[in-house]
Structures are given as C-alpha cells and as structure tokens.
Specification:
By secondary structure, the protein is α+β, with helices and mostly antiparallel strands. The chain has two domains: 92 residues, Alpha-Beta Plaits; 28 residues, no CATH class. The protein is built from five helices and four strands; from the N terminus they run ββαββαααα. The protein has a four-stranded antiparallel beta sheet. This is 40S ribosomal protein S24.
Length: 129
C-alpha cells in the first residue's frame, strides 16, 4: 500500500429486516493520511453495496494510536423513509435531513419560564414567535 490509498473493510455485517437496514463495523485503513472524511467513506460504501450514498449513516469513529486505521459503525437503510423514521434526530441534523433546535439551551429554558407566566394568545406568541 502506498501513501494516500484508502481501504475500506466491513466486519460483523448483518441484515436487520425489522429496522430495514444493514449494519456493520467499518474499518478504514489510511496510511499517510490523517483521516478520511465521513462523506467520502459513505460514497465508497455506497459503491460497494450498490445503494444511494444518502442512505448510508456512519458514526462512532475512533482512530487507532499511531494513526493509519480508523474503526466505526455503519448503517445502510433500504430507503429514506426508514432512515428518517428510525434514526435519532441528532444524526439527521448531521446529515442535513432535519433542522437543528432554535437558540441555545439557556434561551429555550428562559422562553419556557416566560411562557409559564402568560395565558392564551400571549403564551402562544412567546412560544411560537
């Protein structure tokens, strides 16, 4: 293997028909590179398993000490509706399929407590802008 080549392997591959997905461990060998972008790895896996790269979800990557090897977890959903129904919201936000929460945690708590002191239309105005 020369510098810059990337090899992607899957381990412990299993089909999960109840959740309409395939799930596996991903091992990425990348000597001479600091790491591999998640979307690049997703595109390579989509080519390997003949699916849409948008249906591939990768997470939990850890780089081995000394570099050159990264391991993580991967899911390939059968279709986009299954992905949106099953995946947690924070992963959908990472993929750009959902909108992140509005405002910081402190702002949301303050808005909630201001709304507690109002009733009717005034409360709805505070909560929903």
């Amino acid at each position: 293997m020369d510098k810059g080549t990337v090899t992607i392997r899957t381990k412990k591959f299993m089909r999960n028909p109840l959740l309409k997905r395939r799930q596996f461990l991903v091992e990425i060998l990348h000597p001479g590179r600091a790491g591999v972008a998640r979307n690049e790895a997703a595109e390579r896996l989509a080519q390997m398993y003949k699916c849409d790269p948008q249906n591939v979800v990768l997470f939990g990557f850890r780089c081995a000490f000394g570099g050159g090897r990264t391991t993580g977890f991967g899911l390939i959903y059968d279709d986009m509706t299954a992905l949106k129904a099953i995946e947690p919201k924070y992963r959908l936000v990472r993929k750009g399929l959902a909108k992140p929460r509005e405002g910081s945690r402190k702002q949301r708590k303050e808005r909630k407590n201001r709304a507690k002191k109002k009733r009717g239309k005034a409360r709805a105005k505070i909560l929903h802008g």
